[in-house]
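Before relying on records like the one below, remember that each one covers exactly one chain. Contacts with other chains, cofactors or solvent are not represented anywhere in the record.
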Amino acid sequence: TYTLAPAVPASPFTGISTAGLTFGWIEGGNPPNTRYVAELSRDSFATLIASAPTISTSAAFTGLTPNTIYQARVKAVNFLGVDGPYSSPIRSTTTLAMAPLNADQPFTAVSASTITFTWADGGNPGGTSYTVEISSAGFAPGIYISSAATLALSQTFSGLLANTTYYARIKAVNMDNVPSGYPTAVSVVTLPMSPA
């Protein structure tokens, strides 16, 4: 007998991390102990990057790239090894972004009113969005924080007060707008004004 296409719910992904995810489905009328093959792609299945045979109704995928969109689909296979139709529609999700890393020299171009804060990507691919935050009073709740979004690995802040300690931190934001954690905040003191 032929197998039926498994049914995939609107939100079929659980356990999403920086390097893995679990894709789940519903039997779709197939009997218990039906064998399924879940598949993963990054280009709408022009290329298959992972395949997981199982008799369960979910499959875990590991070793994935941070902040990358993956598409998933599943098919049932009958006892003769004949493939049934794929689930439809194809579902997609994005792995989480890694927390960026503080650079060895996190501040460059420090002047009386300007600082440039730099960081390392932490393993995130190019095109990852970063939210950069600075404050002269730390990051306690209720404290004013200046922030900027960038795709670069540095951000310049100007209009700062002279001879003032500024704290900076950074987080990565994945393509589904889910932020990473922060590395430890770092600090710098702007230069004093030149005497008149």
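The longest strand covers residues 69-77.
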